[in-house]
Amino acid sequence: METSVLTAAFERHFGAAPALLLRAPGRINLIGEHTDYNDGLVLPAAIDKEIRFAMRLNGTDRIRLAALDLDDTYEVAVADIAPIPGGHWANYQLGVVAGLLRHGAEVPGFDCAFGGNVPNGAGLSSSAAVECGVAWGLSELLKLNLDRMTLAHIAQKAEHEYAKVMCGLMDQFASLFGRGGHVVELDCRSLEYGYFPFNTDDCRVVLCNSGVKHALGDSEYNTRREECAKGVAILQKANPAITSLRDATLPEIEAAAAEMGEVVARRCRYVVEENQRVRDFTAALGAGRSLAEVGELLYASHAGLRDDYEVSCKELDVLVELSRQAPGCYGARMMGGGFGGCTLNLVATNDVKAFLTHMKEGYQRELGLKLDTYVTTLADGVGELLNED
Ligand code: GLA
What we know:
The protein has helices spanning 3-14, 91-102, 126-141, 148-162, 170-177, 217-238, 250-260, 262-287, 291-307, 314-324, 352-367, and strands spanning 20-29, 41-42, 44-57, 62-67, 72-77, 110-116, 182-187, 193-197, 203-213, 329-334, 340-348, 372-375, 383-384. It is an alpha+beta fold. Alpha-D-galactopyranose (GLA) binds at residues 33-34, 36-37, 125, 167-168, 170-171, 336-337.
């Protein structure tokens, strides 16, 4: 959405010019899935799919929101905000306001119009982009000077309390901390992070959107979190130093497997192995090892998500299998929470076109489904938009 279109829509809705224009990107994650809420390691990046916002303080006590893509509006007094049942889109903004209030900020009435091109339900974290955009925008308008990590935590809490998904920090972190041309490794325990350049001359990150979003996704996500907590409680009996799966080793899990039961043991094993794959991945990047080697880690991650963590689905599995015969593909896996959304594929830059053709034909042939694909560019995190952008 061009800024001129955004500004015009804002003026139509609220009868005044916006005071601030900003953008907040969606994210990919190269590897480290379902590790963030286990104090583990992740390797996300912000991408060139983003939500754009026009905002101003409106001098009243009311929040007025306009979701331009949905052609819908919502209005509420700041003092009356509460989670709206039924998965309402305004929950993400209201949850952020609740978080800022709890943080001690005084939030007056404001106007916000927003829209963008992060596809919904594709696992690219459009909801985190909305949360992070509003959090950063309000921090700017109110001169709160909140650092980005604090904003990420406020945005994450909005997801917990207003959207009822007990997510980790990865999506919000990526939207706020992304850097053009780089992926960023986050240690979700220490909150230390570091950037790795990603050279698109050699290879591109290509997303294949399964086009499905299974309704069970959110509840199964919360269940996985509980299963991991159950595993930790059992591991702790033998070794009180274990406070999360980050501390556990595979032999410790084997020793506790009988008490955990088969399912919880598998969940725990997956998380420990996936953390190791993130370490192996960044080590390989650092050492300049072959893309084929790095790609194998993606296939191994997918196998774990499918068989041990059980968050994949038929459509995602078909896409990963198709990628194995696809021209130029080094590796692929499902990405994000699972139960639908996209697969992430590492594809040789020169072969991207042939790869896309192979995948589209295959998805049509195997499942009779049309495949949307995105060849991503890694982008900067949340920031101000200039009028000409
Ligand atoms: C969702 C959550 C993230 C993370 C991923 C899985 O995107 O919002 O916090 O847990 O799933 O890695």
